[in-house]
Amino acid sequence: MNMSMRIDVVPPCLSKADALLAVVSALPSGFDALVVDNGSTDGTDRILADRSGQLLYARAGNAVLAALLRYRGAPVHDVAPIRVADRGRLLDLNITDRAFGYPLELLLRAVQAGWRIHEIDVPYRARAGGKSKVSASVRGTLRAARDMTKVACR
What we know:
Blueprint: E1 7-9, E2 12-13, H1 17-25, E3 31-37, E4 53-57, H2 60-71, H3 87-92, H4 102-112, H5 138-152
């Protein structure tokens, strides 16, 4: 293996702190853990504090949506946490989804309208407070998947 190449190992988990520690500790040099956590309550998120790796809170779906958006002409790698647009032009997009499909519909309609989309990378950080409506529960994740699928299939 090319030693300058890094390989991400993606273990999904839900309240598996003990098992995760063993898995992450056993990774050979050149392998990084990219943990997909779906709302663990046992300290799973703290396991990676002193280890090589990253924690994603159900962000795998974000990567899939970003790939769909790129396929449809939006030059993005993330379904951004914030969007900035002129209010009038935004209203002219006639976005109909008022639930979890809104961010996807906004970007798809912006591409169709010929908007210039500029993505700026921002770091993911722990939430300052509260719980995510999506990744903090299986129900929220399923609702988001349902709404996004409806928008994507239009």
